[in-house]
Specification:
The chain is rod-shaped and about 95 Å long. A hairpin with a 3-residue loop joins strand 2 and strand 3. The chain contains 4 helices and 3 strands; from the N terminus they run αβαββαα. The relative contact order is 0.17.
């Protein structure tokens, strides 16, 4: 006669799609395992600073294209992300001080005000952005 089975085991493997609310979080599988599937990392955000050449070498068309390219990331940044613009010729200034990307329309309005002119000195603008 065989002895009754009194134990058992479970081997579980998973990839990148098993964690968080779209995975096995708060399911029976999570309840029987000695781990949880909740993501413990706080939500991440990014900060993006565009350093924009507005010197006299930027013609009308080039400046228009540069302004549009500077505004483009605002379509994919989340509201909690941060965005800023440092414009430079021989001097630099914060055309858009670093702020949340939720302020999309005011940010775009400030970018539209950037006009070409002056000499070129990129290093101070890059240092300010850094």
């Amino acid at each position: 006669m065989r002895a009754p089975i009194v134990g058992g085991g479970l081997i579980f493997t998973g990839g990148e799609n098993v964690y968080g609310e779209n995975g096995y979080s708060k399911t029976d599988i999570e309840r029987v395992l000695p781990v949880t599937f909740d993501s413990k990392r706080p939500p991440q955000s990014i900060a993006m600073i565009v350093v924009l050449d507005k010197s006299g070498s930027m013609g009308t068309l080039e400046m228009a294209l540069a302004r549009e390219a500077t505004k483009a990331p605002l379509t994919v940044l989340r509201d909690k992300d941060h965005f800023g613009v440092v414009a430079f010729d021989s001097n630099f200034y914060w055309a858009v001080p670093l702020q949340t990307a939720a302020n999309r329309e005011p940010i775009k309005a400030e970018i539209n005000k950037i006009l070409a002119g002056g000499e070129t000195n990129a290093y101070p603008a890059l240092e300010a952005a850094y």
